[in-house]
Every structure is written in structure tokens, then in C-alpha cells.
Amino acid sequence: MSTNKPLLKVDNAGIRFGGLKAVSEVNLELLKGELVGLIGPNGAGKTTFFNLLTGVYVPTEGSILLDGEKLNGMAPHKITKKGISRTFQNIRLFNDLSVLDNVKIAYHTQAKHSIVSSILRLPSHFAGEREMEEKAIDFLKIFNLDDVLYEQAKNLPYGQQRRLEIARALAAGPKLLLLDEPAAGMNPQETEELMNLIALIREKFDLTILLIEHDMNLVMGVCERIYVLDHGQLIAQGTPVEIRNNPKVIEAYLGEEVS
Amino acid sequence: MKSMKHVKGFWLSIVLAIIFSVVIQFLITGGTLNSFYVNTLFSIGINIILAVSLHLIIGITGQFSIGHAGFLAVGAYASAIITMKLALPFPLALLVGGIAAAFAGLVIGIPTLRLRGDYLAIATLGFGEIMKIVFLNIDYVGGASGMTVSHLTTWPWLMACVLITIVVIINFTNSTHGRACLSIRENEIAADAMGINTTYYKVMAFVIGAFFAGVAGALHAHNFYIIQPANFGFLKSFDILILVVLGGLGSMSGSVIAAILLTIISTFLSNYPEVRMLIYSLVLIVMMLFRPQGLMGTKEFTDLLKIGKGAKGGSQDVNKQTIA
């Protein structure tokens, strides 16, 4: 593994909002094919860190490299094209559109037909649209969503909405998938299904995954390595066992031991 | 298979529209329709173009623009200069009107489309007023007294423009590019995260919408004999906005139907100038109370037909191709 070049290398990255250091001095490396967890108490800066990776915020310090290419200051849609795709803590589907359209939109960046060919309905438009539709339907089959293709996204039950969001993020063709609390609000059975799904997609799509999660069972169960963030800084990293026994982590979660 | 059916329906509607235009043309040349009805038909046509072009910006892309009369003015004046000052043919004026407005859309769109919601509305409102004042102060185009323009808008030209507008906007919407615009309306942050260049598509929708508003401006200028800056104030922008909202945000058939209905209502009410605005406002209030989602909601005409035939459950088919 040591010869493996890191897919994502975060070097001393941080962001401050005015005087507030939301995230600072984060060093993190993801190797290709890894499944890594990012945990931390509420307000630790986990989602802010995701926003730095995806270009929603521009880091005020440090650098973020994907495959050796610097992502700092790149617009979010360009970062997606470079190969980072994400889901959101509070689901952000295209609510009024169908399940199928939600996924088709993620394929947009791969579309070859131009606006002019669509307006003039040239053969390339029909070919492009057909290819997109077939790809999207095949894709949704993997996620068991092919029986609700024409349902509006907002009408799906919660668990399916989460699944659709993951499907949509994957359709964008990422090398690195960021999942922001995918199990939030799920019951144990749904969480179990989600864990299986994550394992499945990882195998199938040759992915590297970074996962924010509160559900310790899920994190400890599926992640190979875990980073712990508290007050915007990394306080620990290691295997699930190491993290479970790390006094700093216990302190961050449960408070300082009274002496 | 599905796309074949769509193609058939598409050609059928085109043929029907052409038959309709030819019939009307015969009625006009035969003198069966008096000039009052002919004028109403012309107003309806122009309003359809305006409503459909604004529908692309507000209903599809979700950018709340209320300066559409500004593009109308640019198109009207640019085309009037072509025919009246430079004595060039009318078809060229139509094209130049559209291109001038599209250019205005590009120039105003790039800085303002970074704004969201209320801020964008105020910025576009400002743009509309600025255009009005610009034309008010250019003596070349007649200043406040305006420009006289010869009547060159004919029924075939009008129908051709209406059809082209509708076809272009339907085709744009029912493609991956239209879906990119819809995704911006639905959730801009998620659209960005899916790799959609949101600024590009917002500006694109704005430019296409402005182009057709400019064409409508050219038709308008060559229909009403005179254009004055006062005709292109924010009240005109609101008139167009009302068509889109009343028809149902996101429904193109709704915009068309609203354009037809409201033009007819306001034309007939012009016989009673003292109560005209009163009744017009009442219609709008009642409408918004009883059907806040607009005449068509987000549905299209074709969706209604499908439900009528009892095909596979309505709610599934609503989204079949898109919302346009």
C-alpha cells in the first residue's frame, strides 16, 4: 500500500470566517480504494470540511490535491468533473423531477450533444438522449429504484430518497465519493441495507469513499481508517479499534474525565 | 418507441398550427374578420411569445426576472431603426431585434445572475427601467415622443415567429440542457454538485428568453405604428410576469393559455376603461385565491391528454419527459 500514491491529499487546509477558525490545519490522505470515516461531535467542522473539498468554500489556508492536481479555488461544478461527488446531510434532491431525471442530470456532464443539436432535433440529440436514458435506467436497477422511475423524487420514502441521492452522486462518475451522514434518520434495518449498499458500490465502481457519520456502528463496521475532527482540528486518526480506545476521542465525545 | 410517438405528436401539432394560420389568413384577406378581431389576434400572438420566453427564465430555470419589458424595448427599437432609419427589409429587422435583445440579455445576465431571488428581481427591474430611460434620452429614436413605425407585421410572419418560439423552447427544455436548467430551479447547490455549470445555463436561458422577447418587440413595433419609451415601463414587465404566474410556473401550455385568455379579457375590457383595471385585478385575485398554482400548475397540455386516455396512472406520467 505504501507505494500507492494518495488519491486525495489535504495539506494543512483550513478556512476562517472572519475571526472564526471553522477548520484549521487538517492533514488527510486517502489512498485509492479506501473507505475512510470522518467523525466528530456536532459542530466539529465535518460538513465545512466537505464544503472545502467540493469547492463550496475556498480554503483560506493550505491546499487540496486530487491525483496531484490542486483544487483550491476551483468552482464546484469543475471539481465534480475532476472526480469528487457528494451527497448532502439534509437531502438535496431535485424534488419536483422524476427519479429518472434526477439521475439523467448527473449524466449531463457526459452529454455530447450540443444545445443547437437539441433545438434543431438533429440525430445526435436523439442518440445522446437515448443513450442517457438507457444508462440511467440500467443504473437505477442497481439501486432497486427502477420501479419508481417516473415518481417525483419528493414522493419517495425517506430511505429511497437517501439511496437516490447516493445513486445520483455516483452517476456523476466520481473517483472519490463523499457521503455526508448517509444514515441520518434511518432505522437500524435501513442502516443495515445502507451498509450493504456502500460495500456493493465500492466494489462495483472502484471507488474511494470518505464518510461522515454519527452512527458509530456504521462507521466502526465499514471504515478501514477513521479521522476524528473536533473544534475544526484533527485530534486523532487510526483504525476503528485505535479510535475506540483513544482517550482524546473519548474526551471529545464524552467530556473530560473528572479527577 | 416513446420518442417516435413524441415525434409524431410534434409534427401533428405543427400541421394543425399551420392549418389554423392558413384558415385565419383566408379570413383576414376575405374580410370576414374585422380589424378589431385581427388586432386582438396579433396581440395574442405577441403576448404568447413574451409569455413563453419569460417562462423559460422563470418557470424552467427559476430565475425571477421582472425586467422583460426591457428586452421588448431593445427589440422594438433595434428593429425600428433597421426598417425606418436604414430602410432594410422587415425579416432582417426581426432578426436584429432578437439579436440586440439577446446581447442585452448577455450583458445584463452575466453580472446579475450571481444574485438570487429577491435581489435578482430588483436588479432586473432596474435593468428594465434603465432601458426605458436610455431610449427616452436618445434623440435619434425620438426621445419621449417615440418613433413612428410602418405597419409591417403580417399574420404569416407573426404565426411563424410564435411557432418557432414555442418549438425552440420546447426542444430546449426537453433535452439534457433543459434538465440542467430545471435542476437549477429545483436546487442550485445540488445542481452545482452534479457538475452543472449553473452560471452558464442561467445566462443561456436568459439570452434565449431575451432573444425571443426581442423578436416580440420587433413584431410589436411594426404592429402598433408607434413606439414610445412609456410603453415599456415596469407595468409592461408585470403584465408579462402575470401571464407566466397565472398560467402556472413551469408549464408552457399554461403560459400560452394565460396569454390567450388575459389578452382577450383585457381587450374586451378596454371598452369599459373606467372599470377595466378593477375587473382585471379582480380576475387575478380570484384566480390566485382558488388556484394559486396557476391554471395548469406544472402540467402540460399533453399530460392532460394522457390522463384523459387513462394511460398508466396520471401521477406517474406527469414527469414523463419534463415539466415543459
UniProtKB/TrEMBL annotation, chain A:
InterPro entries, sorted: AAA+_ATPase, ABC_AA/LPS_Transport, ABC_transporter-like_ATP-bd, BCA_ABC_TP_C, P-loop_NTPase
Origin organism lineage: Bacteria, Bacillati, Bacillota, Bacilli, Bacillales
Alphabetized GO MF terms: ATP binding
Keyword Phosphoprotein recorded: no
Keyword Nucleotide-binding: yes
Domain of life: Bacteria
TM region positions: none
Record domain ABC transporter: where: 8-256
Pfam families found in the cross-reference section: ABC_tran, BCA_ABC_TP_C
Alphabetized PROSITE patterns for the sequence: ABC_TRANSPORTER_2
Keyword terms, alphabetized: ATP-binding, Nucleotide-binding, Transport
Stated name of the protein: ABC transporter ATP-binding protein
UniProtKB/TrEMBL annotation, chain B:
Topology within the bilayer: Multi-pass membrane protein
Cell location: Cell membrane
Annotated transmembrane regions: 9-30, 36-58, 65-84, 90-110, 117-135, 155-173, 203-228, 240-265, 277-296
CDD domains according to UniProt: TM_PBP1_LivM_like
Name of the protein described by the UniProt record: Branched-chain amino acid ABC transporter permease
Key words of the record: Cell membrane, Membrane, Transmembrane, Transmembrane helix
Origin: domain of life: Bacteria
InterPro entries (UniProt xref): ABC_transp_permease, LivM-like
